[in-house]
Amino acid sequence: MKKAIFQRFILILSLALVLSGSIFGAAISKIILDKTEGDMLYSLRIADHGFDYESDLKAQVDSLKEVKGNEVERFTVIDLNGIVRADSEVADSATMENHKNREEVIEAMESGVGYATRRSGTLNMPMLYVASISDNGKFILRMAVPFSGLEEYLGLLIPAILISIGITLAVSILLSERFARSVTKPLHEIAGELLKLKEKNPEFHFKKYKYEEMNVIADTTLQMALSLKESMDQIEFERMVRQEFFSNASHELKTPLTSVRGYLELLENGMAKDEKMKKDFMSRIKKETVNMTNLINDILMISRLETKEAEVVLTEVRICPLVKEVCASLEPLAKEGKVTVNLSCRPLMMNANTQQLRELFSNLITNAIKYNKPGGKVDVTVNSEAKEIVIIVEDTGVGIPEDAKLRIFERFYCVDKGRSKKVGGTGLGLSIVKHIVNYYNGSIEVESKLMEGTKFTVRLPKAQIIKKEI
Ligand SMILES: Nc1ncnc2c1ncn2[C@@H]1O[C@H](COP(=O)(O)OP(=O)(O)OP(=O)(O)O)[C@@H](O)[C@H]1O
Ligand SMILES: [Mg+2]
User: In this structure, which ligand is nearest to the CA of 395?
Assistant: First the structure.
């Protein structure tokens, strides 16, 4: 690019020099010609005044030449028939051919004065001719001088022209070099900044440039680089989340599968001594397969919620009967953990998917029972505000540490792995809840104090506008 700018600069400059030189040359030539013609005409007029056309014309043209003191000047007297009456360069004018057809003579006869430039046959050199009708109107007085236009001045002009071309070229080479650098340097710097995208934590430093266009390019590139970096980070983050998800999911599936295989091997090797033991192994295998099915269902539910699948059917759901049904199904769990569940619910309707709402209540209430203390309490309240349905699930359980509060909504996150395993948790419940809440454009908050209890507050807008991303 630098080379291209440089070459074009020099090309344009050379063109400009040639063009301006030609125009200048033409103008100077014209000025010289006009000036010489003017001088010659003036000389002719003066000569005409002093001429006596009745006496010896040859002697008079010769004396004119002497007065001018120029050896190569030539004076000729021609009559109106074109016959040369006297010529300063030729002794006997009678030997000369008729001049009627000479360009300057024709023009002088037509308009009083005539001009011509051509090579003289007599003197064998380029000449300028000026012819003028005499005062008495009977003769044409002609003067000729050697004339080579600008060529005469070339010896003087060429060094001056060469010096000025040299200076102009040197200055323009310098300028074009600087200009080319001022254009290409920012581009190299911008490209250099872009390469930082490969770094882990790039810090972009785009400079301010002299040319506004460069700043526009730099700003746009910066914006592009930042958003590209953001997208790359997002892709990297999603890749990590996916990888973590797969390793967690396979781990969670591997555990029940290992135990199923263990029990099957025991059965195969005849380790079950009696029918009772056999039944016990069978029921353990069944429990593990139920766990696996539940886990896969949870994963599928999250994936459906993430993609906001079109097949989710929304109906008018009566909230209270639904929560009551969930609480009833969880009664055995509550009894087992010696936990009391209290329900306070206003009769409410919501346009939603029954299965999703059941999952939401079930997960929150199950957690409140599972992570409670014996003799603990769970209060479930469903209320209506102006534009929202407010669901509160409060317990008197073990609580959630401050640093875990944000993470509990992540897939497979358990505050205490051991405890979750004991109570049969995989860490997907709250992730499902969060996805459902997002699906209905709602919000979820958690307040908790260690060993005192936890309060989950879910707000769901009554007017449902579900955005489907398909
Ligand atoms: N009410 C609560 N009190 C105390 N800790 C809780 C409560 N709810 C959730 N947690 C903590 O948050 C973690 C994530 O909960 P989540 O419901 O997502 O998973 P889980 O209950 O372990 O498993 P899953 O719900 O998939 O069976 C739990 O492991 C638990 O440590
Ligand atoms: Mg749970």
Answer: 1
Q: Ligand 1 pocket: which of 367, 403, 444 to mutate (most atoms <8 Å of CB)?
A: 367
413 CA from centroid of ligand 2 (Å): 10
Q: Does 284 share its domain with 406?
A: no
The count of structural domains within the chain is 2
Q: How far is the CA of 349 from the centre of ligand 2 (A)?
A: 26
Q: Specify whether 371 is located in the same domain as 286.
A: no
Q: Which of 307, 323, 345 is the last residue of a domain?
A: 307
Same domain flag for 302 and 320: no
The whole domain housing 267 covers 229-307
Asked if 276 and 403 sit in the same domain, the reply is no
pLDDT in tens, the chain (470 residues): 777 877 888 888 888 888 988 888 888 888 888 998 899 899 889 988 888 888 888 888 888 877 665 556 889 999 999 999 999 888 888 898 899 999 999 999 999 999 999 887 777 788 899 999 998 889 999 999 888 777 777 788 888 888 988 898 888 888 888 888 888 888 888 888 888 878 877 787 888 888 888 888 888 888 888 888 889 889 988 898 888 888 888 888 888 899 999 999 999 998 888 899 999 999 999 989 998 898 898 888 888 887 776 567 889 999 999 999 999 999 999 999 999 999 999 899 999 999 999 999 999 999 999 999 999 999 999 999 989 999 999 999 999 999 999 899 998 888 887 777 777 778 999 999 999 999 999 999 999 999 999 999 999 998 765 544 33
Residue 438 lies in a domain: yes
* Ligand 1 interacting residues, C-beta cut-off 6 A: 363, 367-368, 371, 395, 397-400, 408, 413-416, 420, 425-431, 454
CA of 449 to the centre of ligand 2 (A): 18
Which residue's CA lies nearest to atom 21 of ligand 1?
425
> How many CB atoms neighbour CB 126 within 10 A?
14
Q: Could you say which of 258, 280, 307 is where a domain stops?
A: 307
Which of ligand 1's atoms lies nearest the C-alpha of 298?
Answer: 26
- From the alpha carbon of 453, which atom of ligand 1 is closest? 3
Same domain, 348 and 291: no
Ligand nearest to C-alpha 452: 1
* Ligand approaching nearest to the C-alpha of 394: 1
Ligand 1 nearest atom to the CA of residue 427, by list position = 19
Tell whether 262 and 330 lie within a shared domain. no
